[in-house]
Design a protein that fits this description.
This protein is an alpha+beta fold. It has helices at residues 3-30, 39-44, 48-109, 116-127, 213-217, 290-293, 442-446, and strands at 130-131, 134-135, 161-166, 175-176, 187-193, 205-209, 222-228, 235-236, 244-245, 294-297, 305-310, 325-329, 332-335, 341-343, 353-358, 364-368, 370-371, 384-385, 393-394, 416-422, 428-440, 452-465, 470-474, 481-482. It has two domains: 95-181 and 427-482, no CATH class; 187-422.
Length: 487
């Protein structure tokens, strides 16, 4: 036998011995439990414990799921309930804000006084809103006369509607239910009426201080007035001379060219006069010395702001008082190339800002001229005295007392802009709406229960600003809220 065959035979013999050894060991291992399993089965037997462990793990996971599932359901229900409560509170707050805004506007527009109508308006606005589908129901909390120590016809301090005064003009807001509000600055009418040069006749500009009960009660005077043209791109043209007050204190004023005439400068003296019949209205001047009591700053150049200061005469007249009025002339226009001024008329003054400072009040009233679009001829015909009996002549188509007729019958260019401002006494009108309502549980509703489980509460406070005559919401801190009956 050659070497190759010998080597092959040796390899076969070695392989056989290895197989015999493996077989012997397998037999020895497999027969320890006496089972006659074959070699393949015996070799797979060690994997059986792993299958048992996997089954055990699946059983533990199922057990944990059974234990945790109720907790997850409870957490889900809690999240839903919190969302339901949050939504209900937002809806209640919206309803109370609407009620407070509507009530304070009604009260302020009506000039204060009895609060019953304003409270009814608040109730209607609240009912127009819902909380989780249910209309919001509040009561008026009205009693006239109110209990001792209470004001503004509040029946109780815990009622849904509390009427009072906002006694601060800036944050932090203060609400006092035992303070009576008042727009003590009265009403001030500003007008610019004329075509062409607004200095013509020295009466194209007019300011009239209404004689209202609040203004008289608070003994107010106007300290100064500012007219600002910067926002409309115009300037005052004082190069041709300073502004001048009208000299007319008897008759022949610009208010009416008919049988009813009113002086350019006047004051409260008409209350005892009967309505004239075919005669002129003549009253004592509102300023005893207009040219010294009324001063303008500056008096030359082309300023954008004109300030008018008022003072007492040192003897009998305190200055610009309720019932007084005056008219003056001041050119205004647009600066052209070379420094020339293109003269403006009354329509062009629309948008100019006004500031009014009342003596003794810490803040100013602001507003802007508005373009008049009434079609009315310059000669209005016979006027009438204002129904207040204060001797104010009414000739304008709008019914505004002391307002002159338009300079032209054209609606788009009638030569007139005007605005009526109200000053403040530091006691703006205020209304607080507060309520608590039951809220049904979402989970309880799923099982048919209708009884409210939760209660949500909210409040809203609104004020009516005397200066701008508009309602607005304010946030009053608890420490700045004085409820009814607070000493």
């Amino acid at each position: 036998m050659g070497p190759p065959k010998q080597e092959a035979t040796a390899r076969i013999q070695r392989h056989a011995r290895i197989v015999v050894r493996m077989s012997s060991h397998s037999e020895a291992w497999a027969t320890t439990d006496g089972s006659p399993a074959d070699t393949a089965t015996k070799m797979l037997s060690p994997r059986r414990p792993r299958r048992r462990r996997a089954c055990q793990r699946r059983g533990v996971a199922a057990l944990w799921l059974i234990l945790v599932l109720p907790v997850l359901v409870l957490l889900l229900g809690l999240v839903i309930e919190i969302g339901n409560i949050w939504r209900a509170r937002v809806e209640l707050e919206n309803a109370l804000e609407a009620a407070a805004l509507a009530a304070v506007k009604q009260w302020g527009d009506g000039g204060g006084g009895d609060t019953q109508l304003a409270r009814n308006v608040a109730i209607a606005y609240a009912a127009a809103n819902t909380v989780t589908g249910t209309p919001v129901v509040i009561t008026d909390n009205y009693l006239d006369p109110p209990p001792a120590g209470f004001e503004n016809q509040n029946a109780a301090g815990t009622g849904n509607l509390i009427f009072g005064a906002s006694t601060a003009d800036t944050i932090p807001w203060v609400f006092d239910a035992d303070e009576q509000p008042a727009c003590g600055g009265g009403t001030v009418l500003f007008d610019v009426t004329g075509l062409g040069n607004l200095k013509e006749g020295n009466n194209r500009w007019g300011i009239a201080f209404r004689r209202t009960a609040d203004a008289v009660l608070n003994n107010l005077q106007i300290e100064w007035v500012e007219i600002d043209l910067s926002g409309i791109g115009l300037v005052f043209d004082l190069n041709g001379g300073p502004p001048a007050v009208s000299s007319n204190t008897t008759t022949g004023g610009a208010v009416d060219g008919g049988s009813y005439d009113q002086p350019d400068i006047g004051g409260f003296s008409f209350g005892t006069l009967p309505p004239p019949s075919g005669t002129t209205i003549v009253g004592a001047p509102g300023f005893t010395a207009p040219n010294t009591q009324i001063s303008f700053v500056p008096t030359n150049g082309t300023p954008t702001v004109l300030k008018i200061n008022f003072s007492a005469d040192g003897t009998n007249d305190l200055g610009f008082e309720p019932g007084d009025r005056f008219r003056f002339g001041a050119s205004a226009g647009t600066v052209l190339g070379g420094g020339n001024i293109q003269q403006a008329n009354g329509d062009d003054i629309a948008g100019a800002r006004i500031r009014v400072k009342f003596v003794g009040l810490p803040f100013e009233s602001t507003g802007a001229y508005v373009d008049d679009t009434n079609a009315q001829i310059s000669n209005c015909g016979a006027g009438v005295l204002d129904a207040t009996g204060e001797g104010q002549l009414v000739v304008h188509i709008s019914g505004e007392a002391d307002l002159p007729c338009t300079a032209s019958s054209s609606q788009t260019n009638n030569g007139q802009s005007w605005v009526e401002l109200r000053g403040g006494s530091g006691r703006d009108y205020g209304v607080r709406a507060q309520a608590s309502v039951p809220v049904n549980s979402v989970c309880c509703r799923l099982f048919g229960a209708t009884t409210g489980v939760f209660t949500v509460s909210a409040c809203a406070t609104a004020r009516y600003t005397c200066a701008n005559q508009v309602p607005e919401l304010i946030r009053v801190r608890p420490e700045n809220y004085d409820p009814p009956g607070t000493p």
